[in-house]
């Protein structure tokens, strides 16, 4: 049984913008199932949609056609083939959900409206939009970006990495492992801060 308290964020009776045109999706022939609309296809939204797709009529509203394992992005920069495993089409893990590739522009009392003019009714709404970042919108484009990063790293005579945080440390290590003969210069304010974090 679906319990509204399960969700991180439920919107009821809250309108953000004026309503677009009316194209209505319905849950299908199984009347007992609740309509669950999930806005956002990051870790939180994808997990909720995957967990409920067999229990409810799930609609995932997302601007990108893929889910990305973002903590694998630095590995993908030095090994583009790895990106093919870390960039996953939503349809691959949501065979029983309806995927709507569009942005949500309006949330009303019982409906969500998208930029494409779709109107999707919900019984439960999960808002898991996370942060906005300009990026590739298709899986092919995203993998192509990693291929471009790889070619730049491969062709460079030397590489300068500025920053001693987790990203800078990991990227320097990934490059050093895959390109041991390449000159990598790592610039950070204080080595003490790095060792202090490691000790903790």
How would the blueprint of this fold be written?
Blueprint: E1 23-25, E2 35-39, H1 43-52, E3 57-62, E4 66-68, H2 73-78, H3 80-86, E5 87-89, H4 90-93, E6 98-101, E7 104-107, E8 111-114, E9 118-121, E10 124-127, H5 139-155, E11 158-162, H6 166-178, E12 183-187, H7 191-199
Parallel strand pairs: 1-9, 2-3, 2-10, 3-6, 11-12
Antiparallel strand pairs: 4-5, 7-8, 8-9
- The CATH topology of the largest domain turns out to be FAD/NAD(P)-binding domain
Mean of all residue-level pLDDT scores: 81
β-strand number: 12
Major sheet: size, sense and barrel closure? 4 strands, mixed
Count of helical regions: 7
Q: Between the first and last Cα atoms, what is the distance in angstroms? A: 43 Å
Count structural domains.
2
CATH-defined architecture of the largest domain: 3-Layer(bba) Sandwich
Q: Please report the first level of CATH classification, the CATH class of the largest domain.
A: Alpha Beta
From the alpha-carbon coordinates, what is the Rg to the nearest angstrom?
A: 21 Å
- What would you call the shape? elongated
Q: What class do helices, strands and sheet pairing give?
A: alpha/beta
Protein name: FAD/NAD(P)-binding domain-containing protein
Domain FAD/NAD(P)-binding: 35-176
Family: Belongs to the FAD-dependent oxidoreductase family.
GO molecular function, one term: electron-transferring-flavoprotein dehydrogenase activity
Question: Please, could you describe this protein's structure?
Answer:
It contains seven helices and twelve strands. It has about 200 residues and is an alpha/beta fold. The protein has two domains: about 5-125, FAD/NAD(P)-binding domain (3-Layer(bba) Sandwich); about 155-200, no CATH class. The protein is elongated and about 60 Å long. Strand 8 and strand 9 (about 120) form a beta hairpin. The longest helix has 17 residues, at about 140-155. About 35% of the residues lie in helices and about 25% in strands. Mean pLDDT is about 80; it is low at about 1-30 and about 190-200. A four-stranded mixed β-sheet has the order 1-9-8-7, with no helix packed on it. Strands 6-3-2-10 form a four-stranded parallel β-sheet, with helices on one face. A two-stranded antiparallel sheet has the order 4-5. It has helices at about 45-50, 75-80, 80-85, 90-95, 140-155, 165-180, 190-200; strands spanning about 25, 35-40, 55-60, 65-70, 85-90, 100, 105, 110-115, 120, 125, 160, 185.
């Amino acid at each position: 049984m679906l319990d509204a308290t399960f969700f991180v964020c439920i919107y009821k009776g809250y309108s953000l913008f004026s309503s677009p045109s009316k194209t209505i999706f319905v849950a299908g022939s199984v009347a007992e199932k609740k309509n669950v609309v999930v806005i956002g296809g990051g870790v939180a939204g994808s997990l909720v949609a995957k967990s409920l797709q067999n229990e409810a009529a799930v609609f995932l509203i997302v601007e990108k056609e893929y889910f990305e394992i973002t903590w694998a992005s630095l590995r993908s920069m030095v090994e583009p083939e790895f990106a093919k495993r870390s960039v996953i089409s939503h349809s691959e893990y949501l065979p029983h959900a309806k995927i709507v590739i569009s942005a949500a522009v309006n949330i009303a009392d019982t409906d969500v409206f998208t930029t494409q003019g779709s109107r999707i009714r919900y019984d439960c709404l999960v808002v898991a939009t996370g942060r906005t970042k300009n990026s590739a919108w298709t899986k092919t484009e995203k993998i192509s970006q990693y291929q471009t990063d790889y070619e730049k790293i491969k062709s460079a005579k030397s590489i300068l990495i500025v920053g001693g945080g987790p990203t800078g440390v990991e990227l320097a290590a990934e490059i050093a492992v895959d390109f041991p003969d390449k000159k990598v210069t790592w610039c950070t304010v204080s080595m003490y801060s790095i060792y202090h974090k490691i000790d903790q």
